[in-house]
Protein 1
Amino acid sequence: MALIVQKYGGSSVADAESIKRVAKRIVDTRRAGHDVVVAVSAMGDTTDELLDLANEVAPIPAPRELDMLLSSGERISMALLAMAIHSMGFEARSFTGSQAGMITDAKHGAARIVDVTPVRLREALDEGAIVIVAGFQGFNRDTRDITTLGRGGSDTTAVALAAALNADVCEIYSDVDGIYTADPRVIPRARKLDSITSEEMLELAANGAKVLYIRAVEYARRHGVLIHARSTFSSVEGTYVLGEGQRSPRETEGAVMEEPIVAGVATDLTQAKITVSGVPDVPGKAAEIFTVVAKSGANVDMIVQNVSAASTGRTDISFTLPKADAATALKALAGEKARIGFENLLHDDQIGKLSVVGAGMRTHSGVSATLFEALSEGGINIEMISTSEIRISVVLRGDDLAEAARAVHAAYGLDSEIEAIVHAGTGR
């Protein structure tokens, strides 16, 4: 007997029929002799619809009340799912985040988990019940308020429960059969991976891959949780995300698995580029610029500084950041223009980022050359380049991103002979 934590996203519980299908899968797992704990998201687009309602009644909704509102979506899902399981002859008990012992800090809308005390969940499991937990939400002990965890909160909830309960595996269900070498909506012939390291998955998630959220992957790596990403709509085995020292259940004892050179290609259309032009090329100016950007709350990704022009003693500094952060960063920089002494600000929100990720990059040469040759042959211009030990990222025109991804994916020999199946269309 194993303890299995399962997470089902909004597309998996979008309507009554979907909820009954999920309930059957949970019951089948219980029939196989396993204890089951489930973290569930709000149905379909419920969270977005509740956000729209909030914005209709208040231009700037009060953060505390917004969390009270948004957390109701998961409570609906958990109760309906428990009812469906009861109708199949199995006991199920639903719990809110606070009832499940999900303790967070006090930051509404983007709370972080600080502790998990699953006393009631353990009692329910000991009494033979299937446990259903509302994802995305928690409770702050100091304020005694409900909090929400932000995007990816249900994934993070599931992983945190798996860590606290010492589960054998955390199964993250979505509408694709696992983790692919690229987004199958962009590259239909992307290949499903049997396993991937948590290090590679973190890089892919941070650079646009949507099947798993970076917070959940990081939590799993830190606490030694084995993640199994798989589909709600099929019974095929998915992809295992392996932390240090973990082995895929597919591996035979004693087998040595060589890391692939490239694990995947990620694309991201959610970023913008800001160029601070005519910056005095003297020590301290970059620090001044990025201190201002940091205080605006923007999260900077890639940075490039041009060579100083000898005639003027000035340079340009370009950086990328989420599109949603660009306006506040531009406003903050404009307010400090005279003090910093730069000449102009340029904003470009029509860029795309392409990233190639693979642990094998550490020990194989030619990875960069393959990327740049593929882009060159496609006539695609590169605007910025950034690298890490296992990643190469380039910024391109947004209109070129899909074509670039297909060319690069093929250049690394990642294409499959068959097209990937996307069951519901969202990837989560």
Protein 2
Amino acid sequence: MKKYMPRLLDDILEKRMKIYGAVLIIGPKWCGKSTTAKQYAKSVLELQNPRTRENNLEIANMRPDLLLEGEKPRLIDEWQDAPMLWDAIRYDVDNTGLKNQYILTGSITPRDDEPMHSGTGRIIRLLMRPMSLYESNDSTGSVSLSELFDSVIDIKGVSNKELEDIAYLCARGGWPSSLDLNKGDALIVPRDYLDSLIINDIKTVDGTVRNPNRLRTVIRSLSRNICTTASLATIKDDTFYNDSTISEKTIVDYLNALSKLYVIDDVEAWCPKLRSKTDIRTSAKRCFIDPSIAVAALRATDKDLLKDFKTFGFIFEALCLRDLKVYAQSLDGDVFFYRDKSGLECDAIVHLKDGRWGAAEIKLGNNDSIELAAKNLIKFSNVVDTSEMNKPSFLMILTATKYAYRREDGVYVVPITCLKN
């Protein structure tokens, strides 16, 4: 049996199971939800098992409580295939008052017309993303985000990855099934994921028939505009030569469907207290749950990224944002970005629930770009009104370079392959 690779979500899941009667792990297919859930479950109901599927669905319609029988905690895998189980679980948790009873997994947001109680206070949701570089053993973890929040003065670390390796990690993604494959086979996984998404999974969202070619065109446009605040009009114009009849309404429908499949993972704008009255741009930064989706949609490889550094830069930013989101989640935080009307930007803001925050610029890395990024971070930190909110715990430049260190101006330079939570 393949050895389980620990996830940062493990600790969060354990803690939530002690607080709530049921925990729902959501996220895209192939990201490892079921594998993680099985580490904690004592009995399992697999709703997508073809040998028992029809019988289980029939029982779910007639007597859903029968499917809940089994040693606890009981895993209900891909619960959305039998949404009537939701209310049965909620009722059981309500009736018994017991904690640590059920773990559910779901790769699709249920249809809006499903008659379900919200589950608030009984069933808590946890989002699982594909693996970060630290989880996949591609980061040394010599620099801790948690320690940066605790105001560590000095850092040091040496990345064991070259730029070619970073390009490969962007193209491979964080899909657990790809980690023990050779490089050629590993690059096939995100392409197959994308094909399965477009051909099969999109049909299961809400029963609406969507054009696979049109969906692929929309995903490709999102990929070309990854880590930007591209508007619907921009995406529509970008798809014109492949589909001149597509409307913004249709694009919204496709984006909503992708969100329900947990494929889209946009970064929201951060709105801090500022020293001066400046309009803050609030459009979200467009991102996928994993950078490999964009690489696959562009029909690119790691070698193609090395020939197009502009595209590589955006894909690398998506990789860093994915990892920051995974690390921030384990620290009870979220990731945002900042942009105002003057053009001042900051690629990533990690904001913890206790009010502490840190800012990061993301650069593939050379001396000039790192110098500019450091100046920008300091300029950005000076516009935040620290009489109204906390001073930044750190200013950091995430790079694809070799060494982790602290500059004389206090800005940290950290290779993404040295970072952990």
Protein 3
Amino acid sequence: MAIDTELRQEGLVDSPFGKLHKLYKGLRSLPWIWVSILLVVLVIPAVFAPFIAPHDPYEGDILERLAPPVWDEEGSWDHILGTDRLGRDLLSRLIYGSRIALFVSMTALLVSATVGTTLGLLSGWYGGWVDHLIQRVVDIKSSIPVILLALIFVSIFGPSIFIAISIIAIFLWNRYTRLIRAETLALRNMDFIARARVSGASTTRILIKHILPNVANTLIVLATLEVGTVIILESTLSFLGVGIPRPIPSWGVMVSDGRNYLAVAWWIAIIPGLGIFLTVLSLNLFGDWLRDHLDPKLRQIRR
């Protein structure tokens, strides 16, 4: 709303920026498009990977290395999206890569949301030294770069899926803590909380039965928006060699494998990069739409 008003005041409604803003608003208002993209690119391939992948993602044929996609003159339907430097089918690795992306993102978000929400509830409810202690831990964690944290973990334990999930969970939990703390501070002095106290409800019951349901919408929206962040972070770590180890078909690993072949086999890096782009864009736009429909204040503004 504010951006629309500014564009009208400055006469930029018909400018390229104004047209892009209109396009963005139009796309964001059609969540079924982004849900469909997510189902096609991420969810369905991840769930049914063994049934829809045409080849084994780990096995390659050196005679078929760097085969182009099917739309190229030298391409074939046996490898629809071509092959990589070891002759492995790119479509099969892309499909199995969606399974890695979904598993890592869901697991990391579950861990970080659980830890962050618990600490946020405790921090906002008790206040005092508990709040100060938790917030200082949050500040210390926020000052540590994720890449440095990843290098430390990998140098000690070596790269693995478990280490990648742990790094991402450690990186994200503080966002939930700060947001849920703010929500809890606003809720703990409301009348329905006071009535619960008078009725003899314990602190645990109040937090679980009264406060947690009232912050559920915020948690859902934040988690939806964070899935894209997790996928980018996992791909970045894998690209740098401190995330998912080879030969596991991660999208970040695939982009890393293809960066030295951009001049002769662009599809090795570009196609998985396009998968990352479409997935993250769909998640962000769907998260924006979800936030607009779950937040009562935004619903009132829209009306």
